[in-house]
Amino acid sequence: MLNLNIKISKFSNLYSFVSDLSQWGDYKYYGHRRKEWIKKTGRISQKENKLLLDFKNIHEKLDEHIEIFFIFNNKKEIKKELKSILSIEDIDYIFYILKCFEKRFNIIWDIVEKKLLWIKKQIGTESVVIKNIILDIFTLCGLDTKEPFKINILLLISGFSDLHGWVSDNNIAFECSGWKKNKIKELVYSVLPHEIFHILLKQNGLIKKEIEMISKKYEDGLNFFNKNFGLSNKMFLEELVLSSFIPEGYLSEKYLNNISKKYKNTTDSNDKLLLYRLFVAKEMRAVAGEYVNNGLHIDKEYINKIKNTILTYKL
Fold first, then answer.
1. How sure is the predictor about 268, in pLDDT bands with cuts at 50, 70 and 90?
2. What was the pLDDT predicted at 104?
């Protein structure tokens, strides 16, 4: 039995807002958000630019992605968790910087919060479709559907038309406040199950181990396709396995009547990853259908078929 704990934290959203403005790490890929926030809240002062640069430098000097502490924990837990990673001075300085941007953030928060509350309601509205998708995912992961399992979902600020989901342990972050209301079904029925799939798959140590072993054994071949995505080969292979079911694959076709889209070659890295996902989903349709309809769980044979499919892709 899956229990989704959906939360909206103003502090976590403030942290995401400042991260967007500072453009540290992967946030540099969301330059359009920085422009959008400045347009909505006013020009950045010289003092603020200095604070944002300091914020960026503290984060980028670390090997660890400390955003998970700020997104998924409360203030007291954050300080406790970060003590082994950062100095007390750096921790206090990050909190000071966040405090300095509260007034600017408050300009947009009421609108953002209203949208996130609406999205929370849509996710929390259970339907037969989403229940059946989740049940199939449990089975594909070789898990008992009757066992209680809790997943925390944090809803976060995002730019216009942006939707980005990511996972940390049993937590899902959705950067989704800018997502269009008329496309909410894509979030609820496709993106959400895909992120849940990531978490549930890791609960089966055998499947996790097979993906790790195959991605290591065929490292050179996978590297050729996986360049420029910022993913490890293990994560790249896992993405292809999951997307062969949802959002590009058989589960989407079975429950949402989403027939695999046509794919065409591209040089854009984001579109290229989608291209590979679409290609694999189309080629694996019959096999994926067999696994779903016969109640089978993902195994070494299925993962190898995914690996063979992507390695035979013609550029």
1. very low
2. 98
Contacts of 3 (CB under 8 A, 6+ apart): 148, 149, 150, 151
Element (H, E) at 174: strand 171-175
Helix (H/G/I), strand (E/B), else coil: 264: coil
Q: Check: CB of residue 73 under 8 Å from CB of residue 81.
A: yes
pLDDT digits (tens, 9 = 90+) for 226-242: 776 778 899 999 999 99
Who wins on pLDDT, 57 or 273?
Answer: 57
Cα–Cα distance list, 145 to 1, 161, 166, 200, 256 (Å)? 6, 34, 23, 11, 22
DSSP state of 63: S
Contact 155, 119 (CB under 8 A): yes
Q: Is 44 left (phi over 0), alpha (psi -120 to 50) or beta?
A: beta
Q: Tokens 């926030």, residue?
A: 37
Cα 300 from Cα 276, distance rounded (Å)? 20
Instruction: Give residue limits of the domains in the chain.
Output: 2-171, 204-311
Confirm whether pTM is higher than 0.70: yes
Q: What are phi and psi of 247, to 5 degrees?
A: -90, -10
C-alpha span between 8 and 118 (Å, rounded): 11
- Helix (H/G/I), strand (E/B), else coil: 87: coil
Provide the 3-class DSSP secondary structure of residue 227.
coil
